[in-house]
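Researcher: Batch entry, complex prediction.
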Amino acid sequence: MKLEEMLPKERIAISVQAEDWEAAVRAVGKLMFDTGVVEARYIDGMVNTTKELGPYIVIAPGVAIPHSRPEDGVISPCMAFVKLASPVEFGNKENDPVHLLFALGALDHEQHVDALRQIAEVLMDEKKSKKLFEAGSIQDITGVLYS
Amino acid sequence: MGVGTSMLLKMQIEKALKVLDVKAAVDLADISTAKGLALTADLVVTSNELAERIGNIKTPIITVANFMDLDGLIEGLRPVLENLNKN
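Model: C-alpha cells for the complex:
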C-alpha cells in the first residue's frame, strides 16, 4: 500500500497544540477517527499502548510512532501525522522531546511494511528529515513524504 | 503491539545484516512472547526499556535507542555476530 493512500493529506496536521504526550497521541488519533479509518476506542488503545511501552515508541530523536492492536478498532489500514507546535516528553532519555508523531493503524503485520519503509527512508535521510522538522505547511510535509 | 515498532526495527536489522553480509532469520515478538523467543534466539535486538523487562538471559541483547541510526546498529551488531560465528 502506497504512503499517499495510507497517509493522505487529510490525516496530516502541523502546529498542533498538545500539553503532554497523551494530548499529542489523542490529537494524531483524532485525525484517524475523523477520517473514518479507526473507531474512537482505537485512540484509547494508542494511549494505553503508550502507557505500557511509552519510551519504546519514540524510535528516533524527536519522533514517536503511536499505535495499538488491529483488534482495538482499526477499520482500514491507515497512518496519520502530526507536527507539534511545541515538543512533549515521552520518558525516553535518548530521544525526547518529541516533535513528530506518525500514528499507525494496521490490520495485519505486513500491511505497514511499505509505508514504514518509506517513512524510514525519509527519517534516515538527513535533509528530508530536517524538512519534516522545519515544515511550515502541509505541502512541505507531503512534498517530502510523497516524493 | 509489535505492529509498528518491531516491524520498523526488523526492517533496519535486515538492512544492517545485508551490509554485514550475514544471513539470518529475523522474528518479531511483542513483550508477552519476547522472553520465550529470546531464550531460543542467537541474538535479541530491542530498546533499553524492553531489555530490562526481558531480564537476565544467556542470549546476547543489543539495545537500540535511535532506530534510524543504521550505522550505529551495524557497529552494534558486528562484534556480537563475529562472536557468534566463533562459537
